[in-house]
Write a structure and sequence with these properties.
Largest interface: A-C, 30 and 28 residues
Oligomer: homotrimer
Distance between the termini of chain A: 20 Å
Helix content of chain A: 10-25%
Largest sheet of chain A: 8 strands, mixed
Order of helices and strands of chain A: EHEHEHEEEEE
Number of helices of chain A: 3
Number of strands of chain A: 8
Strand content of chain A: 35-45%
Radius of gyration of chain A: 16 Å
Chain lengths: 164, 164, 164
């Protein structure tokens, strides 16, 4: 885990942040989606939007959740409701960079690539982009109060089914 | 290096595990394949199989080795026997997640992407998937007692020549 | 951050090295290119060359800089002079491996994949390869005295516009 130059995060905090990211990726890579909302605070913001919107200050997001309950709804939809061709999404996430630490939490950035595999097809690059996170401590547990997923491609595939 | 939530691995152990993974990747990325078997225990299990088989409980593996000696044989074959078009395989591996620690060792998971480059061709995504490892300590050295390489694609290219 | 087997780097140094890599990637992923030269020493060597040249001992590099001033020139060119279609480059870099520590600094290796996104196009793999770095300490700050970017593909796209 990584501190910005000048940011002097203690070893223990760095390791706990690294644990948070690794456990999050582990839950998603294992498709244990029911664990996913637990990585967020009660009122967490989770959204996905293309890089272009961020640059132009356009707020429109392709996915927008503003509570853990909404994340749970997404998991239920994913398990029970959504109809989609079976596929695997594999995540490879770079080392997160701790950019800022303040009263409202720690701000981190991390780049990611997602790979998609359809049945009987070779794996392909699905999406890449950057995660902008705000992490807070709640009763001794680190959680995401905010995860903004910024996707490099403008015309993102419709199938943003899975959590990122 | 990363502990599962609740897993309280000491800093030193985490760093040693991180060293193991980095040194392993380094050996393969430098194509110093002769170093590869040394990362495994004498009776290590090393296998590669597609995700589909894992899910359906099918044991069939595309590569199956059950000792360091068999790994050494693979390296000899790779150097001397196999005929294949020259290519580079580049590994990018995410942060490993320590999922469990018990009497039989530590269990870790890590996601990976491999990129292939043929002569005079652009690089392409070759494979992605997840490593399921069991690491043990032998006379002060951490080694893989088990590495199960689970590949996302079902129809894997025949050319699983290189170690993963 | 990762020490070679046998290399016994103290925890604090490992974290500082990890910080250096994360901050470097952060600056480039945020396209804050003006920060880029500051990660290098005054007389730093920065070059990009294909793997094939390295193997055959050919010194020809596609990009060759031998001072921080030359890196600054590249940033100016990138901002003001170069004409190119707008695109995003996303970096995903694996954990660096500390291979050697000596009087002339620390030598590290790390593998990377770069993804390119053109306007209204899906993201694609752009390049992959390996970074060979020498890091030194200057007045309490770690900096790259050398970054050799070795690219797996032989016929690299002309558009090596952005820093790697």
């Amino acid at each position: 885990m990584i501190a910005a130059p000048g940011l002097d995060a203690p070893v223990e905090l760095r390791l706990r942040l690294a644990d948070l990211y690794a456990a999050y990726d582990d839950a998603l890579d294992e498709r244990e989606w029911e664990r996913w909302p637990e990585f967020f605070t009660e009122n967490a913001i989770y959204k996905i939007l293309p890089c272009e919107n961020v640059e132009q200050g356009l707020p429109a997001a392709m996915v927008y959740c503003e509570s853990r309950a909404m994340l749970r709804d997404r998991v239920v939809a994913l398990r029970d409701a959504l109809v989609f061709a079976p596929r695997l999404i594999r995540r490879v996430v770079g080392a997160p960079c701790l950019r800022q630490a303040g009263l409202d939490g720690m701000r981190l950035g991390a780049s990611f690539a997602l790979f998609e595999t359809m049945l009987n097809e070779p794996s392909t690059l699905f999406l890449c982009g950057r995660l902008y996170d705000r992490v807070v401590e709640e009763e001794g547990v680190l959680r995401f109060a905010e995860r903004i997923v910024v996707i490099d491609a403008t015309n993102v595939p419709l199938s943003l089914i899975f959590p990122i």
